[in-house]
Amino acid sequence: QTEVIKIDRENMDLDVLKRAGEILKSGGLVAFPTETVYGLGGDGLHEESSRKIYEAKGRPSDNPLIVHVADMEHLEKIVKKVPKAAYKLAEAFWPGPMTMILEKNDLVPYGTTGGLDTVAIRMPSDPIALELIRQGGGYIAAPSANTSGRPSPTTAQHVYEDLQGKIPMILDGGAVTIGLESTIVDLTEEIPTILRPGFISLDMVQAVLGEAQIDRGLIANDSNIHPKAPGMKYRHYAPKADLKIVEGPMEQVISYINEQAEKGRTGIICTEETRSRYPKGDIKCVGTRKDELSIASHLFAVLREFDEDGVEQIYSESFKAPGLGEAIMNRLLKAAGHQKVDVSDRK
Ligand code: TXA
Ligand code: MG
């Protein structure tokens, strides 16, 4: 049986968080909200807990987990050394939606890092997450709390859909604020490298470190260049129906999607600005282009809804832009298995 317990961020019930912490310390799993997506937590320093996480998610065990901490001292204890860049990034973005890759020491089992000598570490800002980490022993390994391959969960209900009966407890803190997973910055390379784009953009990282780049494996169309974060190579977030992203001037995009919508049960991902232009189809307005965070925070929920609606094909408008648009497009492209239609040359 999976217990779902509502927690009020402004007035947290410490007894519940203590109980959740006990589950973690005794080797069990608890799902909890963070500002990015819901996480599936287990004790990151115990291989057996990590094994349970992989099993509950149905995730390949070569895909490493992120260890969540609540203060810098805990980070210092599990890595070989803390480079200056790590202190700078932590100062700028922690607690918050940024994960660093550093060299691990012997305290971190290979069962948590998928056999790698490096470890991913993040200090989330959600007060529920921070308190759970403290109550649970200080090192909570947590991937997104979805079944492997499905969109990451942005509500406790999403977690319940995927993991009911498989874990003892879900802490329900309502809908998350960002809705896309953290930015991953690899500090074990000569040049700090973003392995997964997120709310913290390349510009923001460069402003702090002077120099930083995006992993070529993420942007390359060349299938011989692989992304460095093992998780980025899997097809992910994929809805059951075939999803294509339509690019080009907005008028052409709209008329192309409307033509396709004549051909079968069609899902359409659009924005406030264009919603009224689609007369037919299962139309989901993901947010407004005036506020990219509104798009980020609803994207995964929209992808999940299409599965319930049972559409045959899905067309999405494109969200090209630097900053958060980079992360939105990265997730959308993965969900689409990189299928794009360019309609620029159509009349
Ligand atoms: O926002 C987030 O980061 C959420 C919340 C729960 O904190 N967590 C999350 O975890 O997204 P997960 O497991 O779904 O994604 C972790 C990503 C994977 O792509 C994995 O391959 C990569 O981080 N990763 C973890 N450790 C790594 C390492 N040592 N080297 C390279 N990539 C690593
Ligand atoms: Mg994930």
Model description:
This protein is an alpha/beta fold. The chain is 33% helix and 19% strand. The chain has helices spanning 14-25, 47-57, 72-78, 84-93, 110-113, 127-135, 156-163, 202-209, 216-219, 250-261, 292-309, 324-335, and strands spanning 3-6, 30-32, 39-43, 66-68, 98-103, 118-122, 140-141, 169-172, 183-186, 193-196, 213-214, 242-247, 266-270, 282-285, 313-317, 340-342. The strands form two sheets. It has an eleven-stranded mixed beta sheet with strand order 1-8-2-3-7-4-6-5-9-10-11, sandwiched between helices. Helix 1 (14-25) crosses helix 6 (127-135) and helix 11 packs parallel to helix 12 (324-335). The protein starts with a strand and ends in a 5-residue tail after the last strand. The relative contact order is 0.14. Bound molecules: threonylcarbamoyladenylate (TXA) and magnesium ion (MG). Residues 143-144, 152 line the site of magnesium ion (MG). Its EC number is 2.7.7.87. InterPro entries: DHBP_synth_RibB-like_a/b_dom (IPR017945), Sua5-like_dom (IPR006070), Sua5/YwlC_C (IPR038385), Sua5_C (IPR005145), T(6)A37_SUA5 (IPR010923), TC-AMP_synthase_SUA5 (IPR050156). It catalyses: L-threonine + hydrogencarbonate + ATP = L-threonylcarbamoyladenylate + diphosphate + H2O.
